[in-house]
Design a protein that fits this description.
18 strands; six-stranded parallel sheet; about 400 residues; alpha/beta; globular
């Protein structure tokens, strides 16, 4: 039996509520065993080169996300094969080293990335071509072992072949998260539109590149983090409006309103966007942060008849500030999850392989800072270093 290094959450060693982080462990390499598990005929083994760290991974690290999905599926594993851990990670790129007997379309030596949603291909939505909202999906790194490991075992139907002659490996590892931005940006026709992006985290910054690549004429970002704002400017955003989060920093009159109604919009932001757009408001607003107040900011920043794309996720109740405004202004809402299979991936490839838009160049040079302290070799992993990188960089990669 061969062993590999992986980052895991191990239920047999750690309590979810009283722990944090991922453990670097040596565990058995995945194998294809069709004799004892016929389903392995549809699987491949990948040698992972790079894996991306995203907000979901940070949420799991801090035990703030996907508790039930992880723990419940680990319980199922324990019953089936005794394995008490989940390999984390859903953004990764590598090379196929073994294939099952029914695998078609890819072979040993092919470079691939993965769709992170392992869909059933049998439910009502899948059969209608809406696999991104599969009823029975599993998610890599959450309810299915992921790619924070030297090798990954994945089903053939989520593989995406990548031409490394046109897309560099570090960027190829970001195809899955970049696809979120592509899906959001593809919901409406953006050519010659004015756009506001509320939240310039990694997906929000990817979205800046996407909407520019799809023809938007003006892009406004709203972001409290000055480091993220500066990075967005380097990516080519037209304006960044700083969002004041601290009560003490709010203008006179706003502090009391924010304390009384934490869901309320920021009128200073709305006024600035109206000023930039000559009193009209933007054609399209993208809510990428998942805060109630951010959703309401969209309601006050978008022109009459405009469109609002909701991507940010938060559990619990939300309050629409002035529901009448939502109806009377004739807004159209779009909710976005994941990537459309495989339309989003095709658009992503087209954008990445077009050198004229400089998207690849900006992803590597700006967001990854040319690999300067943004690539963590697994041999150098410590919890302390991982935490430092989460704080220092909106996006970083693990190298295996």
């Amino acid at each position: 039996m061969n062993f590999m290094k992986a980052l895991v959450f191990d239920k047999s060693k750690f309590n979810w509520e009283n722990s944090r982080g991922f453990e670097l462990v040596d565990i058995p390499e995945p194998v294809l065993d069709e004799k004892n598990n016929p389903g392995d005929a549809d699987y491949v083994i990948m040698k992972v080169y790079y894996a991306g760290v995203c907000g979901t991974d940070k949420g799991i690290w801090n035990r703030q996300a996907f508790r039930d999905a992880i723990l419940n599926t680990i319980d199922d594993q324990i019953k089936n094969n005794g394995k008490p851990y989940r390999i984390i990670g859903h953004e990764f790129f590598g090379e196929i080293v073994k294939i099952g007997s029914r695998v078609k379309g890819v072979g040993v030596g092919d470079f691939v990335s993965c769709e992170s949603h392992v869909v059933c291909q049998k439910c009502y939505n899948c059969l209608r071509g809406e696999k991104h909202v599969c009823t029975n999906e599993k998610i890599l790194g959450i309810s299915h072992d992921g790619g924070f490991a030297e090798f990954a075992k994945v089903p053939q139907h989520i593989l995406w072949k990548t031409d490394t002659g046109k897309i560099r490996p570090e960027v190829a590892a970001m195809q899955e998260p970049f696809g979120n931005a592509v899906h959001a940006g593809s919901k409406v026709d953006l050519k010659d539109k004015t756009v506001a992006i509320f939240g310039l985290g990694p997906i929000g910054m990817f979205l800046t590149l996407v909407v520019k690549g799809l023809g938007a004429k003006l892009i406004i970002g709203v972001e409290p983090n000055p480091i993220a704002a500066d990075m967005a400017k380097k990516l080519g955003i037209d304006y960044v409006i700083p969002l004041r989060q601290e009560i003490s920093n709010l203008p006179t009159g706003q502090a009391g309103k924010r304390q009384e109604k934490p869901y309320a919009h920021d009128q200073t932001v709305a006024d600035e966007i109206k000023k930039i757009t000559n009193g009209v408001g933007v054609d399209v607003s993208f809510e990428m942060a998942g805060f109630n107040s951010s959703v309401n900011n969209c309601l006050y920043a978008t022109r009459r008849g405009g469109e609002i794309i909701l991507f940010g996720i938060k559990q619990g109740d939300f309050v629409f500030e002035d529901y009448n405004r939502l109806i009377v202004h004739g807004f159209t809402f779009h909710a976005v999850i994941g990537r459309q299979l495989w339309q989003t991936w095709e658009t992503t490839r087209r954008l990445f392989e077009d050198p004229s838009n400089q998207i690849q160049e900006k992803l590597f040079n700006v967001i990854l800072d040319r690999g300067n302290r943004t690539i963590l070799p697994i041999s150098k992993y410590t919890k302390e270093r991982f935490e430092e990188m989460m704080q220092e960089h909106p996006k970083f990669l693990i190298q295996f």
